[in-house]
């Protein structure tokens, strides 16, 4: 009876669908609008052929969301062909053209020839939710860094002494700058008024902050050029920074709630060094690990497995890969760095690698690889990590190894 292989080049307003048979012959090549009726219609037409059909897409979210929702609702078998895989496979076919129809054809051929493509499921909806939350948090953090740097520049221009005194991470400093920005303005306000204002807004240690600020502004009695304009901009940016901090706190609470409800949330966060934020990033990038056949496959995707560069007589030459998932690499690198302080076993393993002559970077990468194995085992066994106090550093390093 044979099978049909459908490749979809996903687009914003339209998708291009290419369907081939077992021999690789094109059965259908058609442009379809990105709406439910059109997608359901083409899926229904293909279903009438009474042949098993598999689908493949080159995106897992965004413009592909409605397409995937319709296909999942029909119980379709959907696989994922990444942009990198599609680009590499395109080199195996005739011509150098780059069209939506050709891309869909390449995706369909890749689906037909490769049986190791990851399967997409409804569970990817939770993964997509985490991706959106993690991405939004990273955007907000970038905004916070940018605004903080600008506030520091303006404050240094107005009063270097005040810039050294204020901690822009504290609520009190931002509340203060939203109201008063210049040494003259703070001196005119006086201790009683500043203290009452800070207490009214729930600032902790308001008295100590007031004393430090007044001490700093009394050292400067001259006004710099452009002070009035800079003060107005500074007040606005301090308010913006407060708002961004509030949004970051809110989205981190949402992320923590989603991770707590996730089937692997407790297991991932049980590994020392991985909090709710890094756990969310891991689950957003790796999902439930169904797309990885082994910990080695996950390590390769995260850039923690060296690749061979042998040629002729040169054997055993291994280098760091250039193509890997930066997000996954960041999760394991950041968590390993934290674990060096809070996990005796991780510290002992790192010290062992350093004693073997490894550089800091190499030892940290080795620790990340080892921790990946531990996390994989915990997820495989559906059991949270249970640390045991090592009897000594030497015993700990041997056990972790």
From TrEMBL:
It holds the Pfam family Transposase_20. It comes from the Bacteria. InterPro entries: Transp_IS110-like_N, Transpos_IS110, Transposase_20. GO terms for molecular function: DNA binding; transposase activity. Residues 6-160 form the Transposase IS110-like N-terminal domain. PANTHER family: PUTATIVE TRANSPOSASE FOR IS117-RELATED, TRANSPOSASE FOR INSERTION SEQUENCE ELEMENT IS1111A. This is IS110 family transposase. It comes from Micromonospora endolithica.
């Amino acid at each position: 009876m044979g099978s049909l292989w459908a490749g979809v080049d996903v687009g914003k307003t339209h998708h291009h669908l290419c369907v081939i048979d077992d021999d690789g012959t094109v059965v259908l090549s058609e442009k379809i609008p990105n709406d439910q009726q059109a997608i359901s219609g083409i899926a229904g037409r293909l279903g009438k052929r009474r042949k098993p059909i598999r689908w493949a897409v080159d995106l897992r979210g965004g413009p592909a969301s409605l397409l995937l929702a319709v296909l999942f609702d029909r119980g379709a078998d959907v696989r994922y062909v990444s942009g990198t895989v599609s680009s590499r496979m395109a080199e195996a076919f005739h011509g150098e053209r780059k069209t939506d129809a050709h891309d869909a054809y390449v995706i369909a051929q890749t689906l037909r020839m490769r049986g190791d493509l990851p399967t997409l499921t409804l569970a990817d909806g939770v993964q997509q939710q985490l991706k959106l939350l993690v991405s939004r948090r990273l955007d907000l953090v970038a905004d916070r860094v940018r605004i903080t740097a600008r506030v520091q520049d303006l404050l240094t221009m107005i009063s270097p002494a005040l810039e050294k005194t204020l901690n822009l991470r504290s609520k009190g400093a931002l509340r203060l700058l939203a109201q008063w920005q210049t040494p003259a303005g703070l001196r005119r306000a006086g201790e009683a008024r500043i203290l009452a204002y800070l207490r009214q807004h729930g600032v902790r240690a308001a008295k100590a902050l007031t004393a430090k600020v007044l001490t700093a502004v009394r050292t400067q009695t001259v006004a710099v050029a452009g002070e009035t304009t800079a003060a107005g901009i500074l007040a606005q940016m301090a308010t913006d920074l407060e708002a961004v901090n509030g949004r970051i706190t809110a989205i981190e609470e949402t992320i923590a709630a989603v991770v707590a409800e996730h089937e692997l949330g407790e297991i991932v966060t049980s590994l020392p060094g991985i909090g709710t934020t890094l756990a969310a990033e891991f689950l957003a990038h790796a999902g439930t690990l169904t797309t990885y056949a082994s910990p080695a496959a996950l390590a390769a995707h995260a850039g923690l497995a060296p690749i061979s560069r042998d040629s002729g007589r040169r054997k055993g030459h291994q280098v760091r890969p250039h193509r890997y998932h930066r997000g996954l690499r960041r999760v394991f690198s950041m968590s390993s760095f934290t674990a060096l302080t809070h996990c005796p076993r991780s510290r002992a393993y790192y010290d062992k690698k350093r004693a073997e002559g490894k550089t800091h970077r190499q030892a940290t990468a080795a620790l990340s690889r080892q921790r990946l194995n531990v996390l994989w085992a915990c997820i495989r066994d559906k059991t949270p990590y249970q640390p045991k106090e090592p009897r000594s550093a030497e015993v700990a390093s041997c056990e972790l190894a």
